[in-house]
Automatic annotation (TrEMBL):
Any single Pfam family the record assigns to this protein: WHD_E2F_TDP
UniProt-listed InterPro entries: E2F, E2F_WHTH_DNA-bd_dom, WH-like_DNA-bd_sf, WH_DNA-bd_sf
KW DNA-binding (keyword) present: yes
Protein name (Swiss-Prot/TrEMBL): E2F/DP family winged-helix DNA-binding domain-containing protein
Taxonomic lineage of the native organism: Eukaryota, Viridiplantae, Streptophyta, Embryophyta, Tracheophyta
Keywords: Cell cycle, DNA-binding, Nucleus, Repressor, Signal, Transcription, Transcription regulation
Major location category of this protein: nucleus
Length: 449
DNA sequence: GAATCCCGCCAGGGA
DNA sequence: TCCCTGGCGGGATTC
């Protein structure tokens, strides 16, 4: 089974490698227009789309999974394949290395196969936590994760200076907002919820500067990210839901439209922060409502031990297997990867940001490095809540899955244009056949060529 | 049906 | 005028 999985992954990678070898020449450059203007961004998107379609014709895990599930055979698209978190993970994998100095947005969008707009979202969040710094138009300086603790410390100090941790006063609950003109009281309907937050006492002024600046800037994703992070840093709350965060940051729960927009942005931010492993998505124990928890390696080791890191690492997608975000469903990946527990953990970001002793933690913050890894490597993810496979998952389903794999292996053979890749694939096939005969004790599959 | 969040329109602003 | 930037919300997808 493991070998089969490796085989599938190898084939998946081969498809991506070959695609890159084919290069952009074969990809049509479509002159898309908007407002009468031809946009390079659209061209890039078109190129990425064309490349994606070509790859999907050849081979990818989506088609593999679709094959497993007849209902999905003609429904391979999954929005999760294109999530901002996944894209951010790829972005970090791409640039999180020693020799990265500056990052061009065009280069990033090109290499990641996404339109520039998406890159803006990511760099804005990364810049807010100190991973990047803007150098010039279209250019960012890579600072890496070593600067993150310092930035977080500054955010915490800044929040303290701004009286971010004021004791909650229902009669004077100025919002934490980064919007202007909305300084109304917190909705009484959510007061009980805010009471829960009273230990955080976040209902205060977040930033004087955020109220005086230009409106557009005040609503920027970068500032919202900082405020969102401050919520975690300055509260004792274990979990914060995006609704709560939006209410606090917006301060006007009556305006459902603003709430909706704010929550949308918070989803974007949370996805990026999740992929950096700064927060993780989970649920309130009582309400089962989705919420986010601030992470630190210490907490993770205490909770899930190193095993959880391995598990997480197993779910981490390897960058370079593709140029776009077309990928398999994350949940499916998880379940598949869970069966392959021995991958070595990547380097982990050691930032325990316990709210009470953050300064001490900052002093201790170090980057643990593992051999065979990039010196700046970190574990990114998770991209979704940890899915714990049910103990005693029926053997029946396992058998069926194996049968599906076998059916797939015997009936599907991707064709690679590159002869070397074809040969390499043949090598994997031979390995599989060998294992199949020797280990599984079965007759060779007839359809294998 | 609610939650999630991708996608791209379009306005602001700088070169 | 062009192009970079990014706020914003429709609506598709997932839960």
């Amino acid at each position: 089974m493991l070998l089969l999985l490796l085989l599938a992954i190898a084939m998946w990678k081969l498809g991506a490698v070959e695609e890159r070898q084919r290069g952009g020449n074969s990809s049509p450059v479509l002159p898309l227009e908007r407002g009468g203007k031809q946009r390079g961004v659209r061209r890039l998107a078109a190129v990425a789309k064309a490349a994606k379609e070509e790859r999907e014709r050849d081979w990818d895990m989506s088609s593999l999974l679709a094959f497993q599930d007849p209902e999905r055979r003609h429904h391979a698209y999954s929005r999760k394949q294109k999530s901002l978190g996944l894209l951010c993970s790829n972005f970090l994998s791409l640039y999180n290395r020693d020799d990265t100095e500056s990052i061009g947005l065009d280069d990033a969008s090109n290499r990641l196969g996404v339109e520039r707009r998406r890159i803006y979202d990511i760099v804005n969040v990364l810049e807010s936590v100190g991973v990047l710094a803007r150098k010039a138009k279209n250019q960012y300086t890579w600072k890496g994760f070593v600067g993150v603790p310092q930035v977080l410390m500054e955010l915490k100090k800044e929040a303290s200076k701004e009286n971010f941790l004021n004791t909650y006063d229902p009669t004077n609950c100025a919002k934490v907002s980064d919007d202007e003109g909305d300084e109304k009281s917190i909705n009484p309907n959510i007061e009980s919820r805010e009471d829960k937050l009273s230990s955080t006492s976040v209902i205060s002024r977040l930033s004087a500067s955020s109220k005086t600046g230009d409106n557009r800037r005040e609503k920027s994703l970068g500032l919202l990210t900082k405020n969102f992070v401050k919520l975690f840093l300055c509260s004792n709350l274990d979990l914060i839901s995006l609704d709560d965060a939006a209410r606090i940051l917006l301060g006007d729960a009556h305006n459902s439209f603003q709430m909706r927009t704010k929550v949308r942005r918070l989803y974007d931010i949370a996805n990026v922060l999740s992929s950096m492993n700064l927060i993780e998505k989970t649920h309130h124990e009582e309400s089962r409502k989705p919420a986010f928890r601030w992470l630190g390696i210490k907490g993770k080791l205490e909770n899930g031990s190193a095993g959880s890191f391995n598990q997480k690492e197993c779910r981490k997608r390897v960058f370079g297997t593709e140029i776009t975000n077309t990928n398999l469903k994350r949940n499916k990946v998880n379940s598949l990867m869970d069966e392959k527990p021995n991958r070595k953990p990547n380097i982990q970001i050691q930032m325990q940001l316990n709210h009470d002793n953050m300064e001490n933690d900052m002093g201790r913050n170090q980057i643990q490095q593992q051999p065979k890894q990039s010196s700046k490597g970190f574990v990114f993810g998770p991209f979704s809540p940890v899915v714990v496979p049910k103990v005693g998952d029926s053997d029946k389903s396992n058998v069926r899955r194996v049968q599906d794999w076998e059916t797939l292996a015997s009936s599907y053979r991707p064709q690679y244009h590159n002869q070397a890749l074809n040969d390499l694939f043949a090598h994997y096939v031979e390995a599989w056949k060998s294992w199949y005969v020797e280990v599984a004790g079965k007759q060779p599959l007839q359809h294998f060529s």
